[in-house]
Amino acid sequence: MSQSTSAPIGQYGIVLHPILQNVSESEMTKRIHKLLRAVRIAAQDVKDVIIQRDYAEVIIASKEAEEHALKLMQDPSVVMGLYNLRNITANPKTWLVDKIQTFGRQVQSRLPGTKSLTTSGSATKLQTKSTTEKSQRPQTTAVATSGAHAQSDKPDTSKAGSSMSESQVEKSPKQSFLMKKRAELTKVQGTPVFVSVKTSTAEVKPCGCPETIFYHHLQNIGTETRHVEFKKGGVINERYSFRDMVGKYMCGFLNSEGGTIFFGVNDSGVVLGLDLDPQYEAALKRDITCSARMIEPHVSTSEYSVNFARVMERTGDMSPYLKVLEICVKPRDPPERLYSYKDIIYMRRDGSLQNLGHVDDYQW
Question: Schlafen AlbA-2 domain spans which residues (predicted)?
Answer without folding.
Answer: 224-354
